[in-house]
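Example 9 (inverse folding). The structure is encoded as follows.
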């Protein structure tokens, strides 16, 4: 009888350990899914918010906005499944060029953002050039060779305090400037260079206010 009770106790203990391990694995998986993009495997917006919050020193910080050129044409020609496979390859490519003080996130669609800390503007430009160089290599998607390029906008912060929205907006403006210049290149945000676009935006806001 005592032996039977001991065996039952051991079985119950082992069962408890197995259940506990399964629960821990599920928790780890859910945590991973919460911060990983399902298509590309790179970090997502949730992870970006978390990373930004933990980044205590935002001086010497660079934000790089990457938008793939003509991605819609690839989706329309090869289909959305091929487009997702291409995004996954691009995500893997970006992760391969990242280092300890750099993180890549997918914003959605064909847009990615790279955040670099404790860097110079020259470091950010060098990273942009490396990314564009890697993207210039053909990808093989479903047995077909796919050639793409990307446009990158760079914003750089030298102050101790900065609003993320401002840095991201500047990087976005610089990215569109790169597209206007011919795509497949990067552009650095410059206050003078982009003053026209800011002025245009202000005029638009004033017109909307006047009409409301």
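The amino acid assigned to each position is listed next.
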């Amino acid at each position: 009888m005592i032996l039977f009770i001991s065996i039952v106790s051991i079985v119950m203990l082992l069962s408890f350990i197995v259940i506990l391990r399964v629960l821990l694995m599920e928790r780890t998986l859910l945590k991973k899914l919460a911060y990983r993009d399902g298509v590309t495997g790179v970090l997502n917006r949730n992870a970006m918010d978390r990373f930004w919050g933990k980044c205590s020193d935002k001086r010497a910080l660079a934000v790089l906005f990457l938008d793939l050129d003509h991605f819609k044409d690839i989706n329309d020609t090869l289909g959305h499944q091929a487009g997702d496979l291409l995004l996954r390859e691009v995500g893997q490519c970006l992760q391969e060029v990242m280092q300890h003080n750099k993180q890549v996130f997918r914003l959605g669609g064909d847009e990615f953002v790279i955040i670099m800390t404790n860097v110079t503007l020259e470091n950010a430009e060098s990273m942009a050039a490396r990314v564009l160089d890697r993207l210039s290599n053909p990808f093989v998607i479903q047995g077909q060779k796919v050639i793409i390029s990307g446009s990158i906008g760079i914003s750089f912060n030298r102050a101790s305090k900065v609003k993320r929205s401002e840095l991201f907006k500047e990087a976005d403006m610089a990215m569109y400037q790169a597209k206007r210049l011919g795509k497949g290149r990067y552009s650095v945000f410059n206050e003078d260079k982009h003053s026209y676009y800011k002025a245009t935006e202000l005029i638009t806001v004033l017109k909307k206010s006047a009409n409301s």
